[in-house]
């Protein structure tokens, strides 16, 4: 009898564990579907929305400026380039969705450059960077202001 009782106890424990697991997974699926649906709607809205930013580069000895000008897509933005730009340089572009605004001034001379870049959205600076050196690495890259 003891052997049967132990097996029965193990079966009941396994059944309870299975029931709890099923309940958790079932509730999780409902939550996941709701979350996925909400995220999907937000992504659809965000992907279709456009916004304007203004890039500015000031300083000395910049050989080239690369920037996201609105071409391509959010995961693979097309870079536009300006060679031998007159400084200060300023450009307003229209971007779409979650595409990050980015402007990257580059100086190739050994003496380098003293450069500042900014990204402005609706009159507010959302990113600013200053650099000196042979290559002004990174430049200014911001998160799309319509994501938040």
Keywords:
4-stranded antiparallel β-sheet; 8 strands; alpha+beta; elongated
Account of the 3D structure:
The protein has one helix at 2-48; strands at residues 50-59, 64-73, 76-83, 89-96, 102-106, 113-121, 124-133, 140-141. The chain is an alpha+beta fold. The strands form two sheets. The protein has a four-stranded antiparallel sheet with strand order 4-1-6-7. The protein has a four-stranded antiparallel sheet with strand order 3-2-5-8, with no helix packed on it. A hairpin with a 2-residue loop joins strand 6 and strand 7 (124-133). The longest helix is centred in the first third of the chain and has 47 residues, at 2-48.
Question: Could you give the order of the helices and strands?
Answer: HEEEEEEEE
Q: How much helix, percentage-wise, in residues?
A: 25-40%
User: What structural class do you assign from the helix and strand content?
Assistant: alpha+beta
Strand content: 35-45%
Report the average pLDDT across residues. Answer: 75
Q: Note poorly predicted spans.
A: 1-30
**Total of helices:** 1
Shape: elongated
Question: What integer value in Å does the Rg equal?
Answer: 27 Å
What is the rounded distance between the termini? 65 Å
Q: Report on the biggest sheet.
A: 4 strands, antiparallel
Q: Going across the major beta sheet, what is the strand order?
A: 4-1-6-7
Number of strands: 8
């Amino acid at each position: 009898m003891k052997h049967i009782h132990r097996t029965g106890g193990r079966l009941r424990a396994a059944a309870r564990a299975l029931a709890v697991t099923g309940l958790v997974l079932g509730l999780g699926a409902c939550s996941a579907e709701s979350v996925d649906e909400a995220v999907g709607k937000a992504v659809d809205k965000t992907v279709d929305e456009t916004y304007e930013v203004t890039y500015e580069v000031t300083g000395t000895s910049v050989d080239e400026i690369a920037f996201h000008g609105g071409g391509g897509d959010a995961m693979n933005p097309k870079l536009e380039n300006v060679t031998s730009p007159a400084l200060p340089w300023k450009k307003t572009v229209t971007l779409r969705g979650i595409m990050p605004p980015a402007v990257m001034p580059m100086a190739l001379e050994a003496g380098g450059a003293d450069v500042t870049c900014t990204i402005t959205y609706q009159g507010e600076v959302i990113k600013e960077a200053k650099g000196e050196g042979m290559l002004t690495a990174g430049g200014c890259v911001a998160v799309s202001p319509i994501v938040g």
